[in-house]
Amino acid sequence: MFHILVAEDDKNMRELLKAMLKANGYRPYTAANGLEALSVIDTNHIDLILTDIMMPEMDGYELTRRLRENNYEMPILMITAKQLPEDKRRGFLVGTDDYITKPIDEEEMLLRIKALLRRAKIVYDHRLTVGSVILDYDSLTVTRGTEAVTLPPREFYLMYKLLSCPGKIFTRMQLMDEIWGMDSESTDSTVDVHIHRLRKKFGDYPEFSIETVRGLGYRAVRNL
Questions:
Q1: What angle do CA 108, 39, 7 make, to 5 degrees?
Q2: What's residue 152's pLDDT?
Q3: Does the keyword DNA-binding apply (predicted)?
C-alpha cells in the first residue's frame, strides 16, 4: 500500500482528499501546513506528497524546496488555485513534479498520482520491465531471455526515457536537453541517428516499438 501525505490548511479539503485516497486503496496522512508535513515525514515512510501551495507557517514552495535540498526524492504533486505560468515555473524550479488546479477533479488527481508513483518506482528500482524485456539502468543493459545487449550510455538513456513514458511524445529538443544537455553542441539530428541505431538493434522485438510522430518527435509504444 502506498503512503500519501496531504498537506492542506483547509480542514474540509484535507478531509475530502483523505477520504478520496483511502477509498482508492492508499494510506493517507495529513498535515495542516509545511512544518507539520516535515514532522510527519520525519516519522513515517511517505511515497508521495500532495501539497497545497498557500499555507500558513510554511507554504508548499518552501516545503518542496527543503525536501529537495535534503535529498528527499518522493514525487510531489502541487495543488494550486494559481494558473499563471510564473507560479508553475516557480514550483518546478523548487522541485515539484506535477500540478493539479482547483477545483480538483478526482479522476484526474488519481491518474496523476498513479503516473507519478509508477515513474518513481522506475527511478528507485533503476530497472524497467516491458514484457519479457528488462532495462537495467546501472549496467546499461537490455535483457530479453538469454540475450543481453549492453548499449552506449546515450543510446540506453534515450531508450529508457521513451519506454518510461509509453505513448508520450518527446520532441527532439526535449530529448537533446535531457540526454545530451542544454550546453551540448550536437544538433537535434543526433537524436535521429540514435533512434535509427535503436531500431536496428531492437526492431524485431515484439514488446515495443519506437514511432516517429511526423512534425513533432518520437514516442515509444508498448505492444503487450
A1: 25
A2: 95
A3: yes
